């Protein structure tokens, strides 16, 4: 991925993208980016918060003046935000009001099997399912999404995603931007037909409309101070490489499994599907009136997918927040529990241009009746994950655990991947070396490519902790 991307002058108003008369997608920066609502618990007693959500069809005004059919958690596109605290339980009762089975996976969470949202553990139309989250893990920016086997890709594409922000004492004690200055931003791509409806086909290369919190390349008005953004790539296939149009690096403070040990300056922040990054942007460096674009130099034509969102600095503000030099401590790679087993995982898919490509892990299609990998409860293992395709990018997600990325391509992993991770990108031909400890729960869980079109094609497998 080329670093940097297009460096516009901070003040320059970028030209509108290619806009045809019948194109329902408006020019960039014509809509405001909303902030998804924080759900209020139905009840909050003792140490448990109870939520009730209905999974249902709805319409969303994604494109100005157009009602687009979407699938939603309680009518929100993208989904709402659940705020949770380590050690405090959350119960979410989901009612399935669709005409097809669903399952809800809390991505990045360590939960016992009945509540994990396994692809086969679906609940039927007209029924409800209560998920119990014990939140026995440190703070992390998690998300939830549908996982019904073979339907996960389309369900997520049509809107079944939500944000789950788990916090803890440590995170709360830091002077980072909070409240209205801590903004979840779900980024994804989409393709609209001429009626402004979401078009879905597997492996579609023409999803060239970038949505930030459900709006096409919107603007977001900010005060001249620091903001924390919880970035989530909820695309099925698209890899983003995010930067700022004034050329200043993004300050990344967190990744999938919570804060990094220390902030890191990143000129082009790469996020593959399912990955999260917490960044802080300090708008006080810019006078009121400045417009700063969050750019994407990832794959795709820059005139189509090169812009994600524009920050408009509209007012001054006090800023009591700061970014500590040390955010948390994690055991260094050399001090991790000794690994008893080393495994090799090969991700691949048909690359011969057949109309229905299949996805494989170690040469096998997903079979829910097969246990592919058995690990001992409490043990640590090294997983070497290789993308054996020559042209197709993949990534790798394990349920249940947060792991450490030890190496990428034989070299120590970079600082953006030095924290706790649950999803890691794997470029064509590349191998990543992971350290995983299985000490949370016993049971059967899946691992898969999080380019969901690929997992739906079979690039998924089951591991058993026993
Ligand atoms: Cu976010 Cu098995 O997925
Ligand atoms: Cu893949």
From TrEMBL:
EC numbers, comma separated: 1.16.3.4
Pfam families linked: Cu-oxidase_2, Cu-oxidase_3
Every Plastocyanin-like domain range: 55-169, 356-466
Highest taxon of the lineage: Bacteria
PROSITE patterns in the cross-refs: MULTICOPPER_OXIDASE2 (PS00080), TAT (PS51318)
Molecular function terms, GO-annotated: copper ion binding; oxidoreductase activity
Alphabetical UniProt keywords: Metal-binding, Oxidoreductase
Catalysed conversion reaction: 4 Cu(+) + O2 + 4 H(+) = 4 Cu(2+) + 2 H2O
Family matches, as InterPro entries: Cu-oxidase-like_N, Cu-oxidase_C, Cu-oxidase_fam, Cu_oxidase_Cu_BS, Cupredoxin, TAT_signal
Self-association and partners: Monomer.
UniProt similarity note: Belongs to the multicopper oxidase family.
Name of the protein: Multicopper oxidase CueO
Source organism (scientific name): Streptomyces vietnamensis
Highest classification ranks of the organism: Bacteria, Bacillati, Actinomycetota, Actinomycetes, Kitasatosporales
């Amino acid at each position: 991925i080329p670093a940097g991307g297009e460096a516009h002058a901070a003040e320059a108003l970028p030209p509108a993208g290619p806009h045809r008369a019948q194109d329902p997608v408006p020019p960039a920066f014509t809509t405001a980016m909303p902030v998804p609502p924080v759900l209020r618990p139905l009840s909050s007693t003792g140490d448990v918060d109870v939520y009730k959500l209905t999974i249902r069809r709805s319409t969303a005004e994604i494109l100005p003046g157009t009602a687009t059919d979407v699938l939603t958690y309680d009518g929100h596109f993208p989904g709402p935000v659940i705020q949770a605290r380590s050690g405090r339980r959350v119960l979410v009762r989901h009612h399935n009001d669709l005409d097809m089975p669903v399952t809800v996976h809390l991505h990045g969470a360590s939960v016992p099997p009945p509540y994990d949202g396994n692809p086969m553990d679906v609940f039927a139309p007209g029924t409800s399912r209560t998920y119990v989250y014990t939140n026995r893990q440190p703070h992390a920016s998690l998300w939830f999404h549908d996982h019904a086997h073979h339907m996960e890709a389309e369900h997520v594409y049509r809107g079944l995603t939500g944000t789950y922000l788990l916090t803890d004492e440590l995170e709360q004690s830091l002077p980072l931007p909070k409240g209205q200055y801590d903004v979840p931003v779900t980024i994804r791509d989409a393709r609209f037909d001429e009626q402004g409806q979401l078009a879905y086909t597997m492996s579609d290369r023409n999803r060239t409309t970038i949505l930030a919190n459900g709006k096409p390349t919107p603007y977001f008005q900010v005060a001249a101070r620091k903001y924390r953004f919880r970035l989530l790539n909820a695309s099925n296939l698209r890899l983003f490489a995010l930067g700022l149009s004034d050329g200043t690096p993004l300050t990344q403070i967190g990744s999938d499994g919570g804060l990094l040990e220390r902030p890191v300056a990143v000129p082009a922040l790469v996020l593959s599907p399912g990955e999260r990054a917490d960044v802080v942007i300090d708008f006080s460096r810019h006078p009121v009136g400045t417009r700063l674009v969050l750019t994407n130099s990832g794959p795709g034509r820059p005139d189509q997918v090169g812009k994600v969102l524009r920050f408009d600095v509209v007012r001054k503000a006090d800023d009591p927040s700061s970014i500590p030099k040390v955010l948390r401590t994690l055991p260094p790679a050399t001090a991790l529990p000794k690994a008893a087993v080393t495994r090799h995982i090969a991700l691949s898919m048909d690359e011969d241009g057949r109309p229905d490509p299949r996805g494989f892990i170690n040469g096998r299609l997903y079979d829910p009746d097969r246990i592919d990998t058995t690990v001992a409860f409490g043990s640590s293992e090294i997983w070497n994950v290789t993308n054996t395709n020559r042209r197709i990018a993949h990534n790798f997600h394990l349920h249940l655990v947060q792991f450490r990325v030890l190496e990428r391509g034989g070299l120590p992993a970079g600082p953006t991947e030095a924290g706790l991770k649950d999803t890691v990108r794997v470029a064509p031909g590349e191998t990543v070396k992971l350290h995983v400890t299985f000490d949370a729960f016993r049971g059967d869980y899946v691992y898969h490519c999080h380019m969901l079109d690929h997992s739906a094609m079979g690039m998924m497998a089951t591991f058993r902790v026993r």
